[in-house]
Structure to design on (327 residues):
C-alpha cells in the first residue's frame, strides 16, 4: 500500500512539474517574447517593397534641381513569389500596360526560378506613374502578386538625360553597393557609384490574404528601414541645366540624332541629349540597339567624317551646290 501511494505521488509530482514547465514557458512567450512573435506572425501576411526604389544620392543640375525622381507616384509592383499563373498574369498586364507579354513573363519567371531565396522573394516595379485608367483595370483584374503602390522611383517619367545619367541594376560586385544589391551600370550612375550608393529605405507594406491578394480597405503601412545604411551617401551636382535639357529633348522628339549645348566661355555642358531613348525600367524590352547608344559621346564609323571633308571639297570646287539632292 505504501509503495502504491508513493508511485501515485511520484506520478502527481511528475505531471505537476511538467505543467509548471509548460505554464512557465507560456508566460515567457506571452509576456517577454509576445511582441516579437506577434510581429513575426504579421510579417507572414505582409509583403513589402522599398519605398525609395534605389536609396541613392540625388543627381542635381547646375541649379540644384534633381534630375532623378524624388516624389512618390503610383507604380505597378510585382511580387513574383505570389504570382499563381505567370502566363495569365503576363497576358493581362500586357493588355493593360501595353508591354510585351513575353517581357513580363520572362522577368517574373527569371526571379521565381532563382536559387537565392532573397532574389525569389524580391518584388520589382513593372511600370511607374501609371494612369488612373490603368490603375482601375489592374484592381479589377485582381491578379495575385500584382499591386498598385505609391513609390519613389529612381527615374523621372520622361527619363531626362537618360543616356548621360545611366541606369541602376543588380550588383555584380562585392563592394559596398552590393550590400544593397544594386549598383550604377552606365553613365553618371556608374561613374560616381561610390558616392551615390549606400543608403537605406523605408518599406511600403501591404496586408495580403492566403491567396496573395491585397486585403481591400486595409491600405498601406510605412515600415522603418530594416537595414542600416552601408555608408554615407552623397548627392552630386553636374553642369546640365534642366530647362535646356528638356528643350533639346523636345526638339529631338522621335528623330534619331544628338544635341549638345555648351557654354563657350566656360566649356560647361548645359545639355546633352541622344535619341531615341531607352526605357530604364524595361531593359529587356526588344528595342533597337541604337537606343542604347549615346550619340553625343560614342563613336561612329570614320566614313561619316570623310563625307564631310568630301562634301566641303566639292562645294569649294563648285562641282555641287548646297541645294543639290543625292539619292
Amino acid at each position: 500500500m505504501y509503495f502504491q501511494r508513493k508511485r501515485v505521488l511520484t506520478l502527481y509530482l511528475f505531471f505537476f512539474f511538467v505543467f509548471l514547465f509548460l505554464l512557465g514557458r507560456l508566460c515567457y512567450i506571452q509576456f517577454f517574447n509576445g511582441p516579437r512573435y506577434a510581429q513575426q506572425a504579421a510579417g507572414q501576411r505582409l509583403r513589402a517593397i522599398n519605398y525609395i526604389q534605389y536609396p541613392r544620392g540625388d543627381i542635381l543640375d547646375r541649379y540644384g534641381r534633381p534630375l532623378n525622381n524624388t516624389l512618390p507616384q503610383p507604380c505597378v509592383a510585382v511580387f513574383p513569389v505570389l504570382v499563381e499563373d505567370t502566363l495569365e498574369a503576363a497576358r493581362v498586364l500586357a493588355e493593360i500596360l501595353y508591354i510585351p507579354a513575353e517581357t513580363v513573363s520572362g522577368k517574373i519567371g527569371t526571379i521565381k526560378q532563382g536559387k537565392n531565396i532573397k532574389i525569389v522573394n524580391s518584388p520589382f516595379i513593372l511600370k511607374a506613374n501609371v494612369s488612373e485608367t490603368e490603375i482601375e483595370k489592374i484592381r479589377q483584374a485582381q491578379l495575385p502578386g500584382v499591386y498598385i503602390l505609391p513609390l519613389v522611383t529612381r527615374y523621372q517619367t520622361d527619363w531626362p538625360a537618360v543616356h548621360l545619367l545611366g541606369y541602376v541594376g543588380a550588383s555584380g560586385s562585392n563592394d559596398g553597393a552590393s550590400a544593397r544589391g544594386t549598383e550604377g551600370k552606365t553613365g553618371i550612375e556608374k561613374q560616381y557609384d561610390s558616392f551615390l550608393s549606400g543608403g537605406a529605405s523605408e518599406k511600403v507594406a501591404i496586408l495580403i490574404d492566403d491567396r496573395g491578394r491585397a486585403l481591400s480597405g486595409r491600405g498601406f503601412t510605412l515600415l522603418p528601414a530594416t537595414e542600416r545604411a552601408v555608408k554615407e551617401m552623397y548627392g552630386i551636382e553636374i553642369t546640365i541645366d534642366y530647362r535646356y535639357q528638356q528643350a533639346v529633348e523636345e526638339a529631338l522628339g522621335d528623330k534619331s540624332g544628338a544635341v549638345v549645348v555648351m557654354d563657350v566661355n566656360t566649356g560647361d555642358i548645359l545639355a546633352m541629349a541622344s535619341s531615341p531613348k531607352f526605357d530604364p525600367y524595361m531593359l529587356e524590352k526588344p528595342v533597337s540597339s541604337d537606343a542604347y547608344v549615346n550619340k553625343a559621346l560614342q563613336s561612329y564609323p570614320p566614313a561619316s567624317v570623310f563625307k564631310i571633308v568630301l562634301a566641303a571639297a566639292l562645294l569649294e570646287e563648285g562641282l555641287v551646290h548646297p541645294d543639290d539632292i543625292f539619292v
Q: What stands out?
A: The first strand starts at residue 46 and ends at 50. The chain has three domains: 2-32, 46-160+197-237, 242-299. Residues 242-299 form one domain. Residues 240 and 270 are 4 Å apart (CA to CA).
